[in-house]
Amino acid sequence: MMTFKIAFRNVLRNRRRSAMTLLAIAVGVIGIVLFGDFVRFVTAGLETNAVDKVGHLEVFRTGYFAFGAGNPAEFGIDDYASVVKAIGDDPALAGKLSVVTPVVQLAGIAGNFALDVSKTFLGTGVVPSDRDRLRLWDEHGVNRRRLLPDSGLRDSDEARGIVGVGVARVLGLCEPLKLDGCPARPKKSGPDGAALAVNLAGLAEAERPSQSPPDDDLARIDLLAATAGGAPNVVNMLVSRAEPQAARELDDNFVAMHIALAQRLLYGRGTPKATGIVVQLRRTEDLAYARQRLAQMFSERHLDLEIRDFADLQPFYKQAVGMFRAIFLFISLIMGIIVLFTIVNTMGMSVMERTTEIGTARAMGVRRVGVRRVFLLEGAILGAIGSTIGAAFAQVIGMVVNRASLTWTPPGQAAPSPLEVLTANSMGFVTLVWFAIVLAATLAALIPANRGARLEVVDALRHV
Amino acid sequence: MSATMSAAARPETAAAPPPVVRFQNVVKTYDEDGLKVEAIRGVSFAIPKGRFSMIVGPSGSGKTTLLNLIGCIDRPTSGALEVCGEDVGTLSDDQVTDFRSRNIAFVFQTFNLFPVLTAYENVEYPLLLLRVPSAERRARTLAMLDAVGLSDHKDHRPNQLSGGQRQRVAIARALVKHPALVLADEPTANLDTRTGAEIISLLRKVQLEQSVSFVFSTHDPQLISHAEDTFPIRDGILLEARR
Question: Is there a domain that residue A249 lies in?
């Protein structure tokens, strides 16, 4: 107790110097906590962005992940509905699942034959209501201020679909979809592709329903793809809206449609299959358990299925998170070094000023370890007070930032979203930073503390 | 040297008190910028127990070095040194520190109180090092502050006390642990004559009450006049002791 009293009072002894030291520590902690909270927000945002598109886990037929891009139809999951039901009904996963839904991935050519234009596309067939539920996932609360636009898909309307803004632009849909900042397509001068267009248009015309659909005012495009058997197949799709995508390549190729339409395109009149089953969990922390449980289930049922998580499916997530963590580590290291040198300097001066006191204490019977203990404790006290002040200010600044309605476009996202720092549930992180800084401050005090402890009593007493 | 030997060779009669300090051919050499400086040149003598002993001599004569050796805060380069019956030359650093804590107390010329502690806490500190139980510690601290007339100033920090009061606190701090030996290096040098006289009276009173051995290093005639034993030193050599 006396050691603590001496250490604490010595911290208060040179108030200006201690205040400057505390300021340096507090600024370091504010920097680490705020940037850490920002990285946590970005990580949570990237995770949310991935999970609300592809779920936490996706089940494929074995081999699809490696080879399915070549011919997705070949890797369709037979009787996928029973697999979806089995997953949904599994008592071991009860309460952990948010959405279990089949999807169909496909690639082909999209054409607006009225304008005689076409382009390749990467398509996804989804259950519209399930897609809407997937998009609502927000475990970390990062999307609470985001307004979700209408998905443009309806369970009751198999003909509806949406496209990327790039697809809409190339296919001349800017005007019908009333897209802002989307240039009109220049008139085509040459006859290139006219014959192909006529042939495909014929195929498409044959696919069109004899009766006009209720949404006949929507733009219409035709999608051409190879069926599982290799034959060309065409379906008509009513484009309800264009949805911007994060990357230009994706924006120029994105098409999403009702799963039934995708199945009709990919399997024709054959048995419809799904190329994947998306499993979205309520909480990401259940991912490992759910993955293990699904693997066990598939093994017991002798199903030739493999499971991939969202990080596998979206490598960008891992890269972006890795980059932000590296920046965070770098900043933390710099801040830590600043704290370290500040403490070494402050404690060094303190040892020098108190050399005679050290000599007196040693003469009275304080061992070297006792001298070392006092200075280490002073370093720890400075670290603890500075960290506490820094952590408190970081919370206040965090709240101000969160209420400032700042926006930014994070990596992997097409539209601007709120810029925040994740102060919620950050006690664990702040506590970790607090202990790390106190430890750094204590270790920094070790150098001057050792210098003080090693002083010879006579030399210390002679010090002026 | 012969004078030193004669002091050491003085036969200890049955009536003489046993020595609290015994030097045997002690040499202390300092290495200053590669130059060997012999501060103590082979002294042999004994300081009797329970007396008011003074090491006297001009500045640079080696009296502070001698006091440091007695206080076990410095080690002889050669020779044997026995303090309170213990051959302190054989003790490790921690052992000699603990030995000091138990047996030796210091009163410094510049008081050397801890500025962040109150008068009470300064006096209590040596008892904390000896792990004296809380209640006993409190009783002894208050009694000692009362003995030096500072009960009313127990909550004052050193910077709120006068020079004389600070030295009284330092004396209380030295005596509170009931040491066998109190060493005082020029304890009156920083005090005015009147305060110095008061401090000497106080030390003399305590010495008589507690039968503590006091060893001073001084050239203050006022203090020297109270000496029971005087050990004059010049150029690191002890001259004829006067008793």
Answer: yes
